[in-house]
């Protein structure tokens, strides 16, 4: 009888009666003689139970849903909301232990995003703060861009140059399965994550690595990570090298400054430039656009297209080339994602550079971050981006003009064990389907100096750029509609003026509970610095616009 009473109570809580706006007083159930006197959750029954057909026809008042005035289909699904309220009440009243309403609501919001693509996520206040810090370049942690996997483990997108993670030998593609001996679980995805913490404290991370039969134990010291996103040096007289590790607020300005320094070292003019985007998970879309503009005299850079007009934007180059036409080689690998792919695609499609390395990650979507009133944020995928030729690289990536292999790849054992997780956009569960997705495993990580030497050799080969691709040359059927973006509120970062085309206000956060719209970033595959996935997004203080997978860094 106890079981049947509980079942009845749950059924009543899930019934349409639970959704009545004015429930009648609950009736006291009559207890049969001899029946256990276990309290049964109160159940209410409306005097009239609306039918499913009635529910489907009840639109929400225009005052509650202004969009319904313009679009009849813009209605809140009342019947579904009633079902949700029923489940909410059932959990609150009958779950074995009390659960706070705020916790249930947060879980419900997460559930709204759960079956969307991997880059649409709910970020609690601590995680949202960490995400913002990642675009500004300073935080306490070990210095690695990671992507959370379903079991709680973290795939390393890339260790950040010069950080404790890079010095300790953590590599792109490693899978972190434990921290200080404790196996990671999905709950570790909440907040700043286990890799962040006070500087000066060491942590031991358990790592699965391709070719290793057992997890590696790597000790790493936490530090205050101040990411220098741009470094440069001369490879040979006249030939410069610029390493861009991720796209932050100041990255474009730092790039221009480094180019000026290289030109001075070369006597006023460079003969060629290698731009190294290996293991660059992305970041702010606007920063990638500004760098492309610095190297192009004209032509389209990138365009975005989503379901709402504010997501449609087009960025075009303005006159002025910092290199005065000197040849450019862009070096990429499987860790190059989002904003990195935007930059590589823009330069190649405009015949301004050749791309060498391995196929890139394939994150061709833009995320918008919308802050909520309680300090939390929602990062929502709001658009796909298209290269100047009108191609979407979603789940495909950019195929290099010249393919490179890692050192020793030719003699490596093809049967060596591999870390059992995904490493490209196409392999992420629930990823957006791509127009040119081919089901392949993608490219390879290319560490070391050999790829740089190969890029220099390629740079010296004769090459005459053909005419740049202009906006009017883009296939109209494929290229996203041009739109003059409204003033951006604050995307996930990327404030310095980029070729003028800023989407309407929405940052990378996406409103979830009447939040203030923010902008996006082009981040890399759902990543984050040491605690979440990074993705291209737009300036957090601007309108929505994303840039790569630029995950938060731990």
Description:
The protein is an alpha+beta fold and 554 residues long. It is built from eleven helices and 23 strands. Strands 3, 4, 5, 6, 7, 8 and 21 form a seven-stranded antiparallel β-sheet that branches. Strands 10-11-12-15-16-19 form a six-stranded mixed β-sheet, sandwiched between helices. Strands 1, 13, 14, 17 and 18 form a five-stranded antiparallel β-sheet that branches. A hairpin with a 2-residue loop joins β5 and β6. α9 (285-295) packs parallel to α10. The radius of gyration is 26 Å and the shape is globular. The protein starts with a helix and ends in a 5-residue tail after the last strand. Residues 1-57, 467-527, 531-535 and 537-553 have low confidence and may be disordered. Residues 474-505, 515-548 have a biased composition (Low complexity). It comes from Luteimonas flava. InterPro entries: ClpP/crotonase-like_dom_sf, CtpA/B_N, PDZ, PDZ_sf, Peptidase_S41A, Tail-specific_protease. Residues 128-211 form the PDZ domain. Keywords: Hydrolase, Protease, Serine protease, Signal.
């Amino acid at each position: 009888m106890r079981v049947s009473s509980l079942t009845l109570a749950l059924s009543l809580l899930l019934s349409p009666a639970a959704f009545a706006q004015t429930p009648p007083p609950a009736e006291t159930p009559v207890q049969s003689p001899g029946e256990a006197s276990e309290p049964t959750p109160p159940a209410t029954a409306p005097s009239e139970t609306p039918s499913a057909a009635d529910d489907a026809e009840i639109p929400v008042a225009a005052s509650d849903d202004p969009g319904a005035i313009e679009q009849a289909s813009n209605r809140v699904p009342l019947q579904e909301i009633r079902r949700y309220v029923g489940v909410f009440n059932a959990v609150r009243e009958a779950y074995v232990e009390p659960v706070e309403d705020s916790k249930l609501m947060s879980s419900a919001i997460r559930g709204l995003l759960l079956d969307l693509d991997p880059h649409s996520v709910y970020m609690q206040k601590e995680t949202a703060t960490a995400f913002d810090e990642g675009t500004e370049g300073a935080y306490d942690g070990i210095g690695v861009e990671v992507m959370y996997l379903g079991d709680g483990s973290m795939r390393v997108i890339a260790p950040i140059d010069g950080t404790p993670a890079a010095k300790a030998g953590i590599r792109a593609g490693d899978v972190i399965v434990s921290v200080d001996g404790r196996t990671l679980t999905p709950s570790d995805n909440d907040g700043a994550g286990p890799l962040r913490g006070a500087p000066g404290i060491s942590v031991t991370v358990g790592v699965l690595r391709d070719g290793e039969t057992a997890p590696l134990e790597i000790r790493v010291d936490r530090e205050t990570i101040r990411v220098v996103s741009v470094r440069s040096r001369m490879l040979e007289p006249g030939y410069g090298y610029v390493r861009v590790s991720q796209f932050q607020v100041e990255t474009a300005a730092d790039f221009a400054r480094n180019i000026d320094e290289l030109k001075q070292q070369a006597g006023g003019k460079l003969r060629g430039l290698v731009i190294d985007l290996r293991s660059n998970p992305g970041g702010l879309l606007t920063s990638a656009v500004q760098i492309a503009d610095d190297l192009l005299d004209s032509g389209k850079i990138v365009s975005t297209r989503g379901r709402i007009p504010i997501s449609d934007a087009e960025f075009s180059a303005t006159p002025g080339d910092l290199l005065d036409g000197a040849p450019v080689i862009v070096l990429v690998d499987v860790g190059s994602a989002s904003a990195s792919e935007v930059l590589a695609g823009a330069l190649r499609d405009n015949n301004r550079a050749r791309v060498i390395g391995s196929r890139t990650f394939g994150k061709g979507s833009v995320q918008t971050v919308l802050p909520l009133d309680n300090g939390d944020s929602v990062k929502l995928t709001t658009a796909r981006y298209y290269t100047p030729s009108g191609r979407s690289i979603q789940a495909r990536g950019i195929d290099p003009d010249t393919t490179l292999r890692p050192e020793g790849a030719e003699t490596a054992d093809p049967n060596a064990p591999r870390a059992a997780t995904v490493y490209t956009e196409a392999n992420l569960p629930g990823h957006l389907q791509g127009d040119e997705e081919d089901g392949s495993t993608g490219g390879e990580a290319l560490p070391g100096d050999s790829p740089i030497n190969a890029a220099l050799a390629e740079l010296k080969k004769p090459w005459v750029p053909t005419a740049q691709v202009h906006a009017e040359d883009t296939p109209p059927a494929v290229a996203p509609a041009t739109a003059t973006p409204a003033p951006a509120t604050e995307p996930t970062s990327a404030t310095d003026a980029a070729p003028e085309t800023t989407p309407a206000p929405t940052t990378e956060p996406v409103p979830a509970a009447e939040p203030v719209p923010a902008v996006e970033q082009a981040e890399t595959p759902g990543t984050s610095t040491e605690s979440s996935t990074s993705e291209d997004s737009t300036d957090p203080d601007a309108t929505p616009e994303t840039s790569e997978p630029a995950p938060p860094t731990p």
